[in-house]
Each structure stands twice: as structure tokens, then as C-alpha cells.
């Protein structure tokens, strides 16, 4: 018998506690509590297009700000009340668009939104040049997702406001990578600071192809910043050349040892972090690689291994892992709203408005 919705709702008790691994943001600010404004100032008025724009100090200062925001250490409800963000998503999204909008609303700003290209002038063949002019008129910042790699760069040519790249084709997804590292550094803050003895350095497994998966690529680019404390990165992919030329040049110039493997099961015993994604852009569309490398609660993971996944997931990541401490992926998605608040405050140059003087370096 199907019970009426009203009856089901009246029987539920709501508990909005996150499941999985929920590390305390305080660890990120314990080592160096003051925010370096001079470092964050580098992003004021800038578009955020690529993980390549971040060095370790800039990333760490941004993540410290995100940690303060998550811990609600100072009021921010009016910080951006005179600002409007356009969330222009020409490709589907659950997390990125909603967390950008939620971030803006947390800061007292306003949002206008495109969630489907077909509801815009694109359906009539409107050019990015003209769409860009409209963003200039209607908003102070624009978060964009587009199927075409070249679209964000092209839009920037016509914009007088900053653009935040929410994913451009198979190229990059920098704010996702920042959220990935926010989750990881909350879990192991010591990775961000100094050089650890060898036995404490991370072994990271990446299931995916950095050469044509934007989340994996942007994550790996930021991983290279932590070469002092990452021992190995192993790429698990069915593709002959998972890195591609651009990423290969970056990894060749970095001290982290990069390995390739097709044997995930044999490798599980030494991986501290597993970053997985199964959606790749190949040719002219998205393809799913769900079968070759899968994880579930029976997988022989180390007790303290954590799993990151940018989501949406397919069969590669079984829901039986959701209620385990291996699940850092929900925290990764949850943290995105604090990371995107930190990004918005920084790009608008509004950090001094919210961070108390005693916390400014
Ligand atoms: N992580 C991510 O980009 O998710 P969405 O596609 O839902 O935005």
C-alpha cells in the first residue's frame, strides 16, 4: 500500500547531520590563524578560470578563510548585499550552480540564474559576445558552466566583470578542485604546512583521466602544489594516455612520482586518498566509465583511507560506502558552499569588511 505523502512527512524526524567523514575545519586555522590579506588581494577583481592561478600560499589562505566562514567566526550576512551574481549554466549541474547561489545568498548578495541554455537566446543562435554584454549589464560577477572548453575564455574577452569558471567542457573546474582540497586539508591539515617525514606523506590514487576530465585535471593540478607531502600519485585509467600533453608537462616538472596502473584491487592497501570520477568528455560528448574501477564497502581499503568524488556518481561508487568514514565525498560537496563564499568575498575585495582586524596578518 502506498501511504499518502502527508502521512510519510508527518512520521519523519529531521536531522540535518552529515553522514560520512566530517573533519573539523578548526585544524586548518590552528597552525596559522591570521589571514594574509596581501596574498588574497591577488584575486581581487580577477576571473577564476584555472587551477593554474593558485600557488600554495594563495590556496591555503583561501581555505583558511573558508574554514572561518564554516565555523561562523564572524558575521557575513550583509557582506555582499549590494552585489548580484549571475549563475549562467549552459550545461546541467546540481552542486556547482546551487552552491554558488547558496554562497551568494549566505553573504547577503542576490542571484539571477540560467539553468538551461535552451531558455536563453542561445536557442535563437545568440552569440557569446552578446550574452557577455548582458552579463555586464545585469550582474557584478558571473559563474559560468559551458560544454565548450573555449567558451569561458571567449566570454572573458567581452566581460567587464569577473567570471568564475564552473566547468568548461573537458578543460577545468577550479572551484571544484578548491573544494576537493578543502575537504582533504580539513582531514589532514598538516599536509598544508611544512614538510612531513616520509611515512606521513600521502599516496593518492586517481581513478580517471586528467587529460579529459575537468574535475580530475583541476584536482591534480592543485595536488602538485603539495609535492612536499605527497609521495606518489597513481592514475588508474583504461586509456592509453590518461594525462595528455599539457598535464604531462606539469607532472614531469614536479617532484611527485606519478605511476599508472590498471589494478585497483592490488593497490588499495597503500592508498591514503582515492579520487574518483567516471564521466569523461570524449570527442563530442560525455561517456561513462563505470565498470572497470569500482568501490564498495567490501573493497579492501585501509581503515583510514578517504574517498573523494566530485559527484554525480554512477556504479563506480557504491552507496554502501556512504555511512563509513571512507566517505569524504559528501563533506567535499558540503564544503563547496564555504569555499565559494571565500572566493566571492576575495574576488569582490570584501575580506577586510568581514574578517576582524585581530585575524588579519
Ligand atoms: N561537482 C560538480 O561539478 O557537480 P555538478 O555537475 O552537479 O555541478
Would you kindly provide a written description of the structure presented here, covering whatever features stand out?
This protein is of the alpha/beta class and 361 residues long. Helices cover 34% and strands 16% of the residues. The protein has two domains: 20-173 and 336-359, Rossmann fold (3-Layer(aba) Sandwich), CATH 3.40.50.1370; 176-334, Aspartate/ornithine carbamoyltransferase (Rossmann fold). The protein has helices spanning 5-11, 26-30, 37-40, 56-70, 95-106, 128-138, 151-158, 174-187, 214-223, 244-252, 264-267, 329-347, 351-354, and strands at residues 84-89, 110-114, 141-146, 163-168, 202-207, 230-236, 257-261, 273-276, 279-282, 285-288, 306-308. It has a five-stranded parallel β-sheet with strand order 7-6-5-8-11. A four-stranded parallel β-sheet has the order 2-1-3-4, with helices on both faces. Strands 9-10 form a two-stranded antiparallel sheet. Helix 4 packs across helix 12 (329-347) and helix 6 (128-138) crosses helix 7 (151-158). It is globular.
CATH topology of the largest domain, by name, is: Rossmann fold
CATH class of the largest domain: Alpha Beta
Strand line-up of the largest beta sheet: 7-6-5-8-11
Query: What number is the mean pLDDT?
Result: 94
User: What's the shape?
Assistant: globular
Number of helices: 13
Q: State Rg.
A: 20 Å
N→C terminal distance: 63 Å
What is the CATH superfamily label of the largest domain?
Answer: Aspartate/ornithine carbamoyltransferase
Bound ions, cofactors and other small molecules, one mention each:
phosphoric acid mono(formamide)ester
The number of E-state strands comes to: 11
In helices, the fraction of residues equals 25-40%
As a percent range, the share of strand residues is 15-25%
Quickly give the structural class: alpha/beta
The assigned CATH architecture of the largest domain is 3-Layer(aba) Sandwich
